[in-house]
């Protein structure tokens, strides 16, 4: 068995057992047995249980998906880009629902190193989305707002929606309902963040406002001679 294949088998086994038993409940010897390797082989590849957990979280979370989406986002419209992100994020939450559920239940008992791993992964995801917002602001597409807080609000609302359904004993597997929510939520988010321009500005001619507009206006009833 080559090294890369062994590594993938260990990661798959770790994802399965972490999803079933959590970080605290899954022992490395159980993960090694599930992968069909010796425990020493597991440590040779990952060094520690924490490092193995980090590899699972970083490789099987939304982070690699977000990195893959980014290159194409600025080639499409703003609303389409956000809808693409929302759909993929919701799909990841669905795919990793067991792992997320058990992580939420045991997170207060995690050692500091594991909490740092999780914070680091989330921080990268938020930073990627915030960077996209900043580039769109620099291009004049978006109005002024805090990109970091907006990234947290965007993904946080999607996360809360999915896990809120479970909390209220509603059907979390209804994909059509999630799609409707994603479309409506993205529409509202776009309405709140998109830079609004006057008809004159949209044609490339800045519209006059305030005192400038008043100064250039002809008095009522006057004629140009």
Q: What features would you describe in this structure?
A:
By secondary structure, the protein is mainly α. The chain contains 12 helices and no strands. The longest helix has 27 residues, at 112-138. Mean pLDDT is 86; it is low at 202-225.
Which descriptors apply to this entry?
Arc Repressor Mutant, subunit A; Tetracycline Repressor, domain 2; disordered C terminus; single chain; 225 residues; mainly alpha
Short description:
With 225 residues, the protein is an all-alpha fold. It has 12 helices and no strands. It starts with a helix and ends in a 9-residue tail after the last helix.
Which value, in Å, is the CA radius of gyration? 24 Å
Q: What number of domains?
A: 2
CATH-defined architecture of the largest domain: Orthogonal Bundle
Low-confidence runs (pLDDT<50, min 5 residues)? Answer: 202-225
Distance between the termini: 92 Å
Following the backbone from N to C, one meets helices and strands in this order, namely HHHHHHHHHHHH
- Strand content bin: under 5%
Percent of residues in helices comes to over 70%
Broad shape: elongated
Number of continuous helical runs: 12
Query: What name is given to the CATH topology of the largest domain?
Result: Tetracycline Repressor, domain 2
Would you count the extended β strands for me?
Answer: 0
Arithmetic mean of pLDDT: 86
Q: Regarding CATH, which class of the largest domain?
A: Mainly Alpha
Largest sheet features? none
Structural class: mainly alpha
């Amino acid at each position: 068995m080559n090294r890369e294949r062994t590594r993938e088998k260990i990661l798959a086994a770790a994802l399965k057992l972490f999803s079933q038993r959590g970080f605290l409940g899954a022992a490395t010897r159980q993960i090694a047995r599930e992968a069909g390797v010796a425990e020493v082989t597991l440590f040779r590849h990952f060094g520690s249980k924490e490092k193995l957990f980090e590899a699972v979280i970083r490789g099987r979370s939304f982070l690699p998906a977000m990195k893959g989406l980014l290159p194409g986002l600025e080639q499409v419209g703003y609303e389409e880009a956000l809808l693409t992100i929302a759909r993929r994020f919701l799909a990841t939450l669905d795919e990793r629902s067991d792992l997320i559920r058990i992580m939420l239940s045991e997170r207060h008992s995690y050692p500091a190193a594991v909490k740092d791993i999780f914070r680091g992964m989330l921080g990268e995801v938020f930073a990627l989305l915030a960077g996209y917002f900043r580039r769109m602001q620099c291009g004049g597409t978006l109005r002024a707002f805090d990109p970091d807080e907006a990234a947290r609000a965007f993904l946080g609302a999607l996360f809360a929606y999915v896990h809120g359904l479970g909390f209220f004993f509603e059907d979390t597997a209804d994909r059509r309902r999630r799609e409707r929510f994603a479309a409506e939520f993205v529409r509202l988010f776009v309405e709140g963040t998109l830079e609004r321009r006057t008809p004159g500005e949209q044609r490339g001619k800045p519209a006059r406002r305030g005192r400038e507009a008043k100064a250039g206006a002809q008095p009522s009833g006057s004629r140009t001679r």
